[in-house]
Amino acid sequence: MNEYPEPMTISQILDQREKLYGRFPTVAAVSQGISDSMRVASGWNLLPAYQRESLELIANKMARIVASGNASYEDSWVDISGYAELVLQELRR
Predict the structure, then answer these.
(1) Residue 48 CB contacts under 8 Å (≥ 6 apart), including other chains
(2) Over the Cα atoms of the chain, what is R_g?
(3) What Å distances lie between residue 92 and 7, 44, 74, 87, 89, CA to CA?
(4) Which of 23, 46, 68, 92 is deepest in the core (most CB within 10 A)?
(5) Are 22 and 64 within 8 A, CB to CB?
(6) pTM, two decimal places
(7) Please, which residues have CB within 8 angstroms of residue 52's CB and are 6 or more apart in sequence?
(8) pLDDT tens for each residue of 45-90
């Protein structure tokens, strides 16, 4: 008897994520809209890659929160906090 559960298929994982975060095209559109808004700012190109990446990942988490309508899903907020913390760690080196 196998003591480990069967791994989920890609289809099952995608179905699960859609229930958690909303439809991918909606999340993508919102995330890209936020990112586009940041990229037109004059200071965007002055940021190091790690700061730009963190902001884009935070934008994606923000998009997932609003696309899902589930702002109480704690993991999304933890992820946002984590991406900000990574920037702070780099700034303090």
Answers:
(1) 90
(2) 16
(3) 40, 21, 27, 9, 5
(4) 68
(5) yes
(6) 0.88
(7) 44
(8) 999 999 999 999 999 999 999 999 889 999 999 999 999 999 999 9
